[in-house]
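Structure first, sequence second, as always.
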């Protein structure tokens, strides 16, 4: 079919509009990346840098020479790795149990999960719970109260509902216990779902900010996002400068840009390896047959 002139004009305008929108969205990321790798002398001279005349790693060398920055990276890595592993173990096993129709109390547990989606206790009860559990001032305060997300549990249950029950029944006939069936059969065929929800959990733990402000009482326990927020709000990075080695500090703006890139890079680096599983896992529960 031949396209009319109006249709071609609309497509042209659509491409131009979306292209401009993409440039507007991409430019801040580009600017942050470029400034973080710019030579400090050029940044002090030009102020606005669109492309570095000389590439430099001075901002990154300075950041990674500081105890405060390395410690915050370690805290965030602990939250992302350990928190994701614990959340996946609890959420997936709970969702699998809810998918077993013969489990005693299944309807009651499903109702309790649904209630967590409809009603939230708020900040104060959550704070009191963490305090009564003795988790104040511990990184576990950011992990244990958030092990299972009700929405993720229901989505994973939908995935496990699609797995033929004959697999579990065959394993039981062969003498496998419920735990052995779960570890040897269900988990291996659930990798797409695990990868998708693992990415969700990892991003959430890596970006922990508000709860860290509430429950962590020492700057030594700060994750990278809290340290980054303090860097962005302060004119001079006193926490970073106090723990720096024998490096001359680059301009403060360059340090902020380098910290933003460092805080964003791990998630961007992990996503391509999980993209195949993520595309499959994102379709969980969307098709019923």
């Amino acid at each position: 079919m031949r396209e009319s002139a109006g249709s071609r004009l609309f497509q042209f305008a659509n491409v131009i509009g979306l292209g401009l929108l993409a440039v507007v969205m991409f430019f801040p990321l580009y600017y942050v990346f470029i400034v973080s790798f710019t030579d400090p002398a050029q940044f002090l001279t030009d102020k606005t840098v669109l492309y570095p005349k000389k590439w430099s790693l001075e901002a990154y060398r300075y950041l990674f020479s500081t105890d405060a920055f390395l410690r915050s990276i370690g805290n965030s890595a602990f939250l992302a790795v350990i928190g994701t592993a614990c959340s996946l173990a609890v959420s997936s096993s709970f969702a699998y149990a809810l998918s077993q129709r013969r489990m005693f109390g299944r309807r009651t547990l499903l109702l309790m999960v649904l209630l967590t989606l409809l009603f939230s206790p708020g900040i104060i009860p959550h704070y009191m719970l963490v305090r009564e559990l003795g988790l104040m001032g511990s990184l576990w305060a950011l992990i244990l109260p958030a092990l299972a997300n009700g929405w993720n549990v229901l989505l994973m249950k939908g995935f496990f509902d699609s797995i033929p029950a004959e697999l579990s029944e065959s394993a039981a006939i062969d003498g496998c216990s419920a735990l052995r069936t779960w570890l040897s059969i269900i988990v291996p065929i659930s990798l797409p779902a695990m990868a998708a929800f693992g990415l969700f959990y990892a991003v959430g733990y890596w970006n922990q900010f508000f709860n860290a402000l509430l429950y962590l009482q020492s700057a030594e326990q700060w994750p990278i996002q809290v340290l980054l927020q303090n860097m962005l709000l302060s004119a001079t990075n006193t926490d970073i400068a106090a723990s720096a080695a024998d490096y001359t500090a680059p301009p403060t703006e360059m340090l902020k840009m380098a910290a933003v890139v460092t805080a964003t890079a791990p998630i961007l680096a992990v996503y391509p390896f999980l993209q195949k599983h993520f595309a499959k896992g994102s379709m969980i529960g969307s098709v019923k047959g």
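Margin note: The first helix runs from residue 5 to 36.
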